[in-house]
Request: fold
Amino acid sequence: MQINNDIETHRLKEKIRALEKENKQLNEIIAVLPGHIYWKDRQGVLLGCNDEQAKDSGLKSRYHIRGLKEIDLISELAPETFRLREAANIENI
Reply:
């Protein structure tokens, strides 16, 4: 039984490594795409963005956007407009 568990553990570790590699590759592609790309959860908390979005938001890197809300990045008047538009988009999902 221990041998089967060891084999299964090894297979799972290999799958995890493959998924981590794929995730890293996808993040690297998204990072350099042109335009402003960002994503957030349903509560409006930003989870990630590409390099251009980070730069234009005044962040040191794309990794600094995680956990922020758009109100942290844009003028005082614009957040409500974005929130309403995105709420409508989420409803259409």
